[in-house]
Amino acid sequence: MWLHKYDYLASVDDDWFPGSIERTHHKGPFPAEKMCSLSLFPPPLALGQSTLCESNNELLPGSNTEDRAKQDTSPLSLYFPRESLKLHSRTESSSKAAFLDHSETLWMRSAAAWRDGGLSGLLTEITNSNTEVPKWLSVSSGCTLALLQRVSSFHGSLFPHLTLSSENMIAEFSQVLNWSDCVVRAFAWHPHTDKFAVALLDDSIKIYNPKSATTPTLKHRLQRSVAAVQWKPLCASALAVACQNCLLVWHVDPCSLSTRPSSGCAQVLSHPGHSPVTSIAWSPNGSLLVSASPMDTAIMVWDVAAESCVPLQRVGGGGVTFLSWSPDGSHVLASTPSALFRVWETRMWTCERWPCMKGRCQSGCWSPDGSRLLFTVQGEMVIYALTFTDAPGISSGTSKGSQAAAVVADLSETTFNTPDGDIILGGEIQSIAWDPRGERLAVILQGDPQAADRPAIIAVFKTRTNPIFELLPCGFVQGEADAEPRLMQFHPNFQHGALLTVCWSNGRITHVPFYFLSTAVPHFGLSGSPLLPRPQERPSALANQSLFSEFIS
Amino acid sequence: MYSTEQSCWFIRKVICWRAAASIAWAVLLLPPITAVFVILSRFSLLHPIHTISECFSLLTSASAIFSFILLCGVILMVGFLNLEYYTVIPTIACSKIALLGQLLHPRQILNSLAHCIMGIVVAWSCAVTIGGRYETLGYTCMQSEGSPQMCLNEYHLVFLLAGAFVGLSHSLLGVIHNMNYVSFHTVQQYKYLRFKGSLPLVVKCSATQALYSVRNFIIVYFFLGYIPRVWICKTLNLHLNSSVHPLDSIAGLLDLSLLYQLWISATFLLFTWYITLLLFRIFVTEVYSFPVQSSFTEDAHQCLPKVVTDRKPIILKFLALQDLALLSQHSPSRRYDVFSLSQPGGHPHNWNAISRECLSLLADLTQRLVGYHDTVATNGRAKSLSTGSERKTSSETSVISGSEEFMSPRPNMLMKTPASVFARSIAGGPQSPLTAPFTPDLDSPFASPALRRLTAPVEQCSPWHGSVQSPHIMRREPKLWSTSTDAQVNGSPPPPSPASVPSPQQEPSKPSLLAQFLQNRKEQLPEASSQALFADSQAHIWALEGLSYLVQASFSEDQFGVVQTTLPSILGCMLVLQEAVDRHFKLPHASSKPLRSSSSMGDSNYKTLRFALRATLKTSIYRITTTFGDHLNAVQMSAEHRKRLQQFLEYKE
C-alpha cells in the first residue's frame, strides 16, 4: 500500500470514497476487500472488431474491413510494416572484435581501450595482454579491475537497474509496452497544430503534417534508441528527442520542402554521466526542458537556446526514470527506479519525496489544471491520486500537497465472457494518459504476453474534475485481432472531445475519437458542435455508475 | 540629483548587504577549508593517526591563528574587489588589441597588483602552515669556512613567488574569461542549493587551474628564477647555500613533494577565492521583490514602475526586470497591481511605465541590430570603404519605422553602447574613468596619437549613437566593435540632446605605419562583435518575457482593458525586432555556436545570449498569438505586420 509523506502508513482519508461497489470505508493500511473497477466496464468487443470511436456515451465497433478502408483514406492513420524498415542487424560493439586489428601496438590498443571503455577498458586491455607488459603491471591492473568490479557489483546490488545495458534500461523504464520490439518507438503530437512526429525502430523520425505533402525524415549519427520525443510548446519547429547517449533538439522549419533536414538542424545536448535519456519534458511555457536518465541521480534542466544545463541533484533513488510536467507548469513528477518518486515545484525547484511501499512509480499524468496527479506503481494494479493546492498569491517554494495518496481505481484482473471464450483483462498498468480537457483517462494494461487470454488492452475512464473528482467507466479500446497497444497519446487540442492516438504492435497508428460535449469549457455556437449527430443523451445503465467520486465534506 | 539618490538607496540597502553577507559566509567557510588543506598538505600515508593529531595541534597554535587572521583579511579584500569590479554586462573585447587594452587598463593593473600581493600573503600562510623546510625565508647555514651565517631558503621563496604568480594569472584570466561578469540564471534555486550544486565545479576548476598555473610558474621560474633570488639575497643580505641544489634546475624542480605542496597550496588559494566569487554571484543575483505600488509617496521611488526606468545602477535595472519577468509569470496578485488604475484620475500609470520601458528597450535593440547590419559586410567584418571619403558629419535624424514612438526622451549619452547604457557606477559621476570596469579606452598606452585621431570620429558615428540615425549615413570607415566608446574618448560628456551632435570637422590624416599595424590588430573578430551586440540582452529577454506574460494574463485578468491600448505597439515592436534578429542571424558568424568550456569559473553565459534572445522572442510572440488567436485580427497594424503575424497564427515560423 501507500506510505505517508512522512514515513508512516496512512489510511485512506474519509473524504476519499473508494468506489461504489463495496461502499466500504477503508480504514487502516490495507483495503479489506478488493474493489474491482473493471467489472463495471462494458465487455470487450468480439474478435475481429476494433474500436472506431465513442459517440453517445458508447464505444462504437467497426468491423475490420470497413475500419481499414476508413483508415487508409485518412491521411493521419499510418502503417509501418516491420518489413519496410531497414534495421541494423548488428550493433557496433558486437562487430568490434571482428574488425579490430590485433597487430596494433600495445600503446595503440590501450589508447583505443581508454577511448572506448574508459578506465575499466584500459585495465582489461592491460590485463589481457600480459605477455607484452611487465608482470607487476598486469597483476596490479588485474587486481584493480577486480576491485572495481566488486565495487560496481556492490553498487549494482543496491540499485539493480545499473547493471542493465542501456537498451534494456530504456525498455525497462519506457512508457512504451515492450519497447525493444516496438516498430513505433515514440510518438508526439505537436501541442498546437495537427502534425506529429513518429520515431521508428530504425532510429529515424518522421514528421507528418496533413497540411503539407512533405514528410521530413530526421536522421542523425547520435540518434539511436529513441526513448521519447516531444515538441516544444509555443514554437513551431523544435522537437526534442531522447537518445541513447544524448538529447537532440531538432529545428524543423515547417515551411521547408526538404525531406531530409541535415544534422546541422539538430542541437546536441549532452552531459557526462547523463545517458541513456529515458524521459524528457518541456515546460508548458516553452522555456525549459528537463531530462532524466536512470544512470544519473540528477535531473537536468536545460536552457536549450544557451545549451546550458542545471543539474538538480538529490540523493536517493539511484536515478530518474520518468518525468511529467503538469500542464499549468507548476510541478514536475520525477520517478526513480526504486520505490520513491519526487514531485518538484518549479518556482524554486524544491521537491517533495514520496516513498512508495511496493515498487517504483511506473507512470503518471496530471489533470489539466495541474492540481491532481494520477500515478501507478509497479507491482500494484491500482491508480493513485494526489492533490496539490497552491496557496493563491505569492506562494514561494513549498506547495501544499495532500499528505497521502488515495486509491481511485482498482484494475485487478477480471474475467469477461465473450462469444470467443473467456478473456481476463486487468493487471499491472504500463502507462496512463489524461486528455487535455480532463474528461477521459486512458490506461494501457500490460496483460500477459504468454497467455493468449490475457491480452494487453486500453481501458478508458470518463473523468470529471469539477466540482468533484469522479471516475466512471467508459470502455475498452481494441485494435485488430493480432495487435496489442504499445503506446498512446491524446491529441492536445481536438475540437469535438478527445482524440486518442494509439500505436499498435503491428506498426499501425490509429486515432480513436471520443465525441462528447465538454462540461468544463462553455460551448459557443461558433466553435462547432460534435461531428456525429446526437439525438439524445442516452446514458447506458453501466456507464452512469460512478467508480470513484470525491465527496465534498 | 534625484537619480543618484535612488541609486544610493539600492546600493546601500541591498547590494552592500548582499556583498557583506557573501563575504561573511566566505569567512565562515574558511576554517573548514583550511582544515582540509592542512590535512591534505601534511598527510603521510605511513602515519595517518600521527598526521591527524599533529594537524590538530597545529590548527590551535598561535602561528596558525595569525595566518588564519591574515587569510580572513585576504578574503575580505577579495570580496571587496568582487564588489568593486563586478558587472552584469560583460565587456567583450572584439579585437586582440582591445583585449590588450583591457589588460593594461590602469584599473586592471591595480586589480592585478592587489591579487599579486594577496597571492603572496596566502602563499606565506600556506608555507607557514605546512612548516618544515618551507617555514622561513632565512636559515642558519654553515659556510665552507665554518662560520654560521644566514642563508636564503629557496623553498620559501618559491612558495611566495608561486603565490604571486597564481594571483596574477588569476587576475589576468579573470579579464580574458570575463570572470567579473555576473550572470542571472533562468532556473531559480535557493541560495544553499545553488551553492551546493556549484561546489563540485568550483573544486574541479580550482584544481585544474592550479595545475596549469603551477606548470606555467615552474617554466617561468626555470628560466627567470635567478632574478628574484639574487635580488632578495641582495636586499635582505642573505647568502646562497652552495651545498644545496638551486631550485631553478631540472633536478631541483623535479622534487615531487615540492610540486605537490605547490599545487595543493595553489588549489587552496584559488578555491577560497572562487568560493568568495561564487557566493558573491549567488547573493547578488538573488531575486529582489520590488513593490508594484506603494501607499506612501516617499517609497514611490522604490516601486517597480519607477525602478525599471532607472538606468543608473545597472544591477538595479536588471533585478527590477528579473522581478518583472517573475511576477508576470507567477504572481496574480502583483499582476493585478500592474493592471490597476491610479486612484484619483484612473490612469494605468503602472502598466504604462512598465510597458513603455520594456518597449523602449526592445526598440533600442532593434535599432542597434539595424545599424550593425548596415555597417557590416556579409562576411562579418566591417565594410571597408575608403577612409574618410564619405565621412559625413551630419547629425540628421531619420526614423526607423515603428520604433520611434517607444523612444522615451532620455539623455543621449546613455544609449550609445551596451556598456555605456548600463555603465555601472557606485554613486560616482558617469564620466569618472573608474566607472566602467575594464573598459579598454584609447588612453591606454597602445593607442597612438594617430590612432586616436583616426578613431575619434568613428566613435562619433557608432550606429547607436544618437537616438536614431538612418542606415545610409553609417557606412563609414572600419568600425571598432569594441565597447570602448563613449565619454572617455571625447573627454567631455556628449550633449544631451539627440538632435544636435556636433561633429568635429577633421580632415583624415595619413595613418602612420604603426597605426596601420595596430589597425590590423584591431580587425574585429566577427563572432565577438555579435556577442558584444547582445551583451546586455538579458535585460531584453526579461522585457520580452515580462511583456508577453503580462499580455497573456491580461486576456483574463485585465479588468479595465489597459493592455489593449498598447497591444498593437507591443506586437509591432516584437515583429520589428523579430525581423531584425532574423536578418542578423543570416550573417554567417552570428549563428555559429561558441565552444563551451566547462572547466572555467568564468561564466560564458553571455556568449549564447543571442540564441536565448532569439528563442525567447519567438516564444513570446507565440505566447501572445496562441492566447488571443483570431482576436488579433481586430488589432490595428500594418499590412506587413499582419502578414507576419499570420505566419505565427498558422505556426509557420
From TrEMBL, chain A:
Domain Aladin seven-bladed propeller: 165-515
Keyword Repeat: yes
BP terms from Gene Ontology: nucleocytoplasmic transport
Key word Repeat present: yes
Signal peptide: none
Any one GO CC term of the record: nuclear pore
One Pfam family linked to the record: Beta-prop_Aladin
Keywords: Repeat, WD repeat
Protein name, per record: Aladin seven-bladed propeller domain-containing protein
Organism this protein belongs to: Pleuronectes platessa
Automatic annotation (TrEMBL), chain B:
Annotated localization: Nucleus membrane; Nucleus, Nuclear pore complex
Highest taxon, organism lineage: Eukaryota
Region Disordered: start-end pairs: 382-412, 481-510
Recorded GO CC terms: nuclear membrane; nuclear pore transmembrane ring
GO MF entry, a single one: protein-macromolecule adaptor activity
Membrane topology: Multi-pass membrane protein
InterPro entries per record: Nucleoporin_prot_Ndc1/Nup (IPR019049)
Entry-linked Pfam families: Ndc1_Nup (PF09531)
Signal peptide location: none
An example Gene Ontology biological process: mRNA transport
Job description of the protein: Component of the nuclear pore complex (NPC), which plays a key role in de novo assembly and insertion of NPC in the nuclear envelope. Required for NPC and nuclear envelope assembly, possibly by forming a link between the nuclear envelope membrane and soluble nucleoporins, thereby anchoring the NPC in the membrane.
Family of this protein: Belongs to the NDC1 family.
Protein name, UniProt field: Nucleoporin NDC1
Species whose genome carries this gene: Pleuronectes platessa
